[in-house]
Each structure stands twice: as C-alpha cells, then as structure tokens.
Amino acid sequence: MNKYHVYGLGAALVDTEIEVSDQDLKTLQVDKGLMTLADSARQQQLLSQLEGHLVAAKRASGGSAANTIIAASYFGADTFYSCKVAADENGDFYLNDLESAGVNYHRTLFREMGDTGKCLVMITPDAERTMVTYLGISETLSTAELHGEAIAASEYLYLEGYLVTSETGRAAAIEAAQIARANKTRVALSLSDPGMVQFFREGLLEMIGEQVDLLFCNRDEAMDFTDAQTIEAAAEKLKQYAKCFAITLGAEGALVYDGTKTVRVGSEPVSALDTNGAGDMFAGAFLFAITHGHDFEQAAMLANRAAGKVVSQFGPRLRAEQHQEILQVPMPA
Questions:
Q1: For residue 214, which of 316, 104, 303, 296 has the smallest C-alpha distance?
Q2: pLDDT tens digit sequence for 138-164
Q3: Fewest CB atoms within 10 A around its CB: which of 69, 83, 215, 236?
C-alpha cells in the first residue's frame, strides 16, 4: 500500500496575478501566451510599469507542479511536494500555503538565504495568461531536495516540464524518475508550456527517458513536440514517448489514451476569464481520479469540469470547498 498517491517536483513560485491589455504586453515587450524567464531587475521593472494595475493583484503560492499537487490534495489525494524556497518571508508564506492545503513536504531541509521565486502572471481580456518568472532560489533546485523514501512510497511521481530550464532541476527530475522506476512508482510528466517545447525539446527528451507512464500536454505542445500537422497524428506519435497520455483541447475537452484505447472527452461550455492554471488543475484532478479507482475517461470528465471551473474565475486555484462541490456531481458509470 503506497503512503502517497502523488509526489510532485517543481519550482516554488509566489504568484502575483494582474489584469492587463494586449497593448500593455506590447509596451512591456513581453511575448503573449508564453512563460518567459527574467532576472529580478527585469521583473521589478515590469512591476513598476504596471503600478497602476496592482490594486487588484493577488498573491498565491504557485509553480505549475505545486498547483497540480495542491489540487490533487484538496480533492482528497495524499500528496508530497519537493521544491526549494529561501529563508525569506515569501518562503514562509509558500510553505504555510502548502501546509494549509494538506500537502506534505521535506520539513528538515535547510533553507538558504536568497529570494524565493516569483512569477508575474498577466491576464488579457481574452483570458490568455502570459508569465514572466524570476526563479530565484528555485533555479538551484537539485537532487538535494529529493526525498527518496517519499518517491518510493508514492503511486505517481509528477514532474513539471519547467524543470528543464535549470541544469540542476533537470538533473533532479531525471534522478527522481530513476528512483521512481526502481520502486515501481509510475512517472508522469507535463510539457508545461509551448516555450519549453520550442526551446528545450532535447532536455525534455532527457527527462522523458525511454518512456514516461503518463504525459500531460495541450494541443499546441503535442503538435510542436511531435512535429505533427493534426492532433490525431500528434497523439499517434506521442505513443513512442508515453505509455499513456492526456492532451487538453481547451473548450473542446481532452483526448486521452490509457495504453489501450484513445477517447475524446468533451467539456461543458464555460465563460473563460483566466486560463492561468487550467492545465495544472486538469492534471491534479486527473491524477486524483486515476489513483481513486476511476478510468481515464471518467478522470478526463472530472478534470475537464475542474479546469472549466478554474478558467471561469481569476487565479490558478480553486477554493478548498470548490473541489468538494465538483466531486458532488455524479461520475458516469
């Protein structure tokens, strides 16, 4: 019997979310719809230029894998998260947020002086999210932050694709996968962002290794990663990299492959305000479902419902009670 349903590894970022216009992005010279890495000075410059927008800014613990693990935890999964925060106020805030969400973490790790990572999330009126990330101390996330016993005691290891941007982070992801495979823990990976596929494909292939057990990606990531012209062709090509996969298709739902059959699962229509966190929420709900007796089709139905709820409000996460409300909707047999 595994102690944890999901063990996550990823960046620890304190998010600040701001509503902006397309013109703002052009003025700021930020590429729309992508995650861009920046140093602290560049991020501070952007915050200064957006000073008038900060009235409605909200702070939350984030990072792609963290959002997924927190969602899985709120749905009812037993979870563990490995990350790196500094000995600063944002680090305290981050760990307290994990704790309040019921996520276990490596409590005895020494926290170095420095800056806990920060992510500026800019939302345009079309609900698209654009991110500028200062990784801070997260850039030095390494094998030292891994908890081998917790990985071995988990049903799934979940890796965020963003780890590919850091030499030490990528090495940690590869070692975590090796520990997982040695202990029959399944390995799940998210491609995370079209920019990761575009600029770090070789590194992602290193993280995938021979094959992962479960791959999460969206339509653009799937097609770019496989160099396919249609989503059907991309799905076929993904089978060489993953035993199973889930491709999110926005308003069209998801395409999932359980190792035997491919199923397209539709989603209910929603009015999107903010797409930030939709893929993370999908993965969290999906991982919860497949570790609690549901098949891939049922998992995708729950995940679509959860992602739809996230995009209909601002912020990458749902309130704790909203997860339980989603679970109250009967799952088809």
A1: 296
A2: 999 999 999 999 999 999 999 999 999
A3: 236
59 pairs with which residues across the strands? 16
Task: Kindly give, in sequence order, each residue whose CB lies less than 8 Å from that of residue 195, ignoring residues fewer than 6 positions away.
Answer: 31, 34, 35, 36
Residue 265 contacts residue 253 (beta carbons within 8 Å): yes
Q: Which of 163, 160, 158 is nearest to 288 (CA)?
A: 158
Whether residue 314 is predicted with pLDDT greater than 80 in this model: the reply is no
User: Rounded to two decimals, what is the model's pTM?
Assistant: 0.91
pLDDT (0 to 100) of residue 300: 96
pLDDT average, residue stretch 195-205: 94
Strands 154-160 and 129-134: unpaired
Q: How far apart are CA 67 and CA 12, in angstroms?
A: 10
Return the structure tokens found at 17: 């979310």
Those residues whose C-beta lies under 8 Å from the C-beta of residue 53, and which sit 6 or more positions away, are 18, 19, 20, 24
Domains of the chain, first to last: 4-328 (3.40.1190.20)
**Which residues, 6 or more positions from 333, have their beta carbon under 8 angstroms from its beta carbon?**
none
Contact status, residue 181 vs residue 205, Cβ threshold 8 Å? no
Confidence band of 331 (pLDDT split at 50, 70, 90): low
Backbone angles phi, psi at 219, to 5 degrees: -55, -50
Task: Report d(CA 25, CA 13) in Å as an integer.
Answer: 21
- The tokens for 245 are 């996969």
Q: Looking at residue 223, what DSSP letter applies?
A: H
For the segment 311-333, the average pLDDT, to the nearest whole number, is 81
